[in-house]
Write a structure and sequence with these properties.
Elements lengths: L5 E6 L7 H11 L3 E6 L1 H6 L2 H8 L14 H11 L2 E7 L1 H9 L5 H8 L4 E5 L3 H5 L1 H12 L3 E2 L3 E4 L5 E5 L3 H12 L9 E6 L4 E2 L5 E2 L6 H12 L3 E6 L11 E4 L3 H12 L4 E4 L6 E3 L18 E3 L3 H8 L5 E8 L3 H12 L3 E6 L11 E7 L5 E8 H18 L6
Parallel strand pairs: 1-2, 1-3, 3-4, 4-5, 8-11, 8-13, 11-12, 13-16, 16-17
Antiparallel strand pairs: 6-7, 9-10, 14-15, 17-18, 18-19
The protein binds cytidine-5'-triphosphate (CTP).
């Protein structure tokens, strides 16, 4: 995927520096040339020899070491790179770059670079929350630096909070996105539903399903990367908000329906990836139901089919894409749903398999269109599936006549 692409990987002195070894290794496996630049503190945590061995490339550390071509080397390296990535980026590094300070090889190379630059902060949660650090991040974003959100979790100090370096896999995916970016959805307004809904039974219990929200979030992330404006309406999930996407959190099917209808006039494309509950309890008990009451019968009523309603209310030129979660006769059932709901595209997947679909990072889908077309997307990561879906949407948009803005 990254054959021959040139990446400068900056490593600063955070505890997470060891994870940069995995990042370098994965980038190499994808075919990229990786030149590592380490700050002095980073070399105290990980040996430059490790990076040198993994990348097969000299590692740059001090400005004033041999060879004496230091005064041009950082500029040469900055010019050589197609992408600069700094992972982990400490609060110190963010502050220096935001202030234009260039006092070692890494910061000098960053100032000299005119290619895209991805900074991946990792630090103690209190440091990350510090208004000065947050101001620097805002400033850097405004200047065009891409900055990944740290993850929430256990930190090196033992505390739990937001500040962990994202997993190498996520960093690498972001790099791939930046280097292979297609800007073919610039200005397209996309409305996506994602995740499960919860239908309350009493104050502590609800009906829901196994959807993790990953497919919808991957759609949001990839559409954004291709230049779309994205509103993501999400049921409860454990996923972080994708950057640059307007996230609307909802709980029940009815809340999701209202949020979708609120944004419907705005959207050019609607993709319903949510696993909306098909039924809800007729009554929601005000107090917790007690088991002394004996056996319980719950009466359920169907929820409104949001996708069918969207399809009915759509205006000309609006594109509506649905998902069909099936466990048998996948293609036949999906085609029947496509026709019944009057969609432009149906993404059919088999949710009966353990290795794809619900709660998995992978999916295998078929893209059905009303003309009888069926495109198979073999098992791959949900981000790749999302890109294949957008490829089809971009084709359909090119054929459709736009209307109403
Ligand atoms: N959907 C929706 N609102 C609902 C139910 C489903 O918008 N109340 C959407 C889903 O987001 C998905 C599509 O409809 O895009 C198909 O969902 P699925 O559960 O596969 O099909 P259903 O139409 O609910 O039919 P069934 O459950 O009987 O298979």
């Amino acid at each position: 995927m990254l054959d021959g692409r040139k990446i400068m990987l900056g490593v600063t002195g955070g505890i997470a520096a060891y994870k940069a070894v995995e990042v370098a290794s994965r980038l190499r496996k994808l075919g990229a040339e990786v030149a590592v630049v380490m700050t002095r503190n980073a070399t105290r945590l990980v040996s430059p020899l490790t990076f040198r061995t993994i990348t097969g490339h000299p590692v740059y550390t001090e400005m004033f070491e041999e060879p004496r071509r230091w005064n041009v080397e950082h500029v040469e390296l900055a010019q050589w790179a197609e992408l600069v990535v700094v992972a982990p980026a400490t609060a110190n590094l963010l502050g220096k770059v935001a202030a234009g300070i260039a006092d070692d090889f890494l910061t000098t190379a960053i100032v000299a670079a005119d290619c895209p630059c991805l900074l991946v902060p990792a630090m103690n949660h209190r440091m990350y929350a510090n208004p000065v650090v947050q101001r620097n991040i805002r400033l850097l974003r405004a200047l065009g630096y891409e900055i990944m959100e740290p993850e929430h979790g256990r930190l090196a100090s033992g505390a739990v909070g937001k500040g962990r370096l994202p997993e190498p896999d996520r960093i690498v995916r972001r790099v791939v996105q930046m280097l292979t970016r297609r800007e073919d959805m610039v200005g397209v307004r996309v409305l996506i539903t994602a995740g499960p809904t919860r239908e309350p039974l009493d104050p502590v219990r609800y009906l829901s399903n196994r959807s993790s929200g990953r497919m919808g979030y991957a759609l949001a992330e990839t559409a954004r990367a291709r230049g779309a404006e994205v509103v993501l309406i999400s049921g409860p999930t454990a996923l972080a908000a994708p950057e640059g996407v307007q996230l609307v959190r909802v709980v029940t099917a009815e809340e999701m329906r209202r949020a979708v209808l609120d944004h419907l006039a705005w959207a050019r494309v609607v993709v319903a990836a949510a696993a909306v509950a098909d039924w809800r309890p007729v009554e929601v008990a005000k107090q917790k139901l007690k088991k002394e009451q004996g056996p319980l019968t719950i009466q359920l009523v169907p929820t409104v089919d949001i996708l069918a309603e969207v399809s009915q209310r759509r205006r000309p030129g609006q594109l509506v894409v649905g998902f069909a979660a099936e466990t048998e006769d996948v293609l036949a059932n999906a085609r029947a749903k496509l026709e019944r709901k009057g969609l432009d595209l149906m993404v059919a997947n088999n949710v009966g398999r353990p290795d794809v679909g619900f709660d998995s990072e992978f999916n295998e889908v078929w893209l059905l269109d009303p003309g009888g077309g069926c495109l198979h997307v073999p098992r791959c990561r949900k981000e790749e599936v999302a890109d294949r879906i957008w490829d089809r949407v971009v084709e359909l948009l090119a054929n459709a006549t736009p209307s109403g803005g």
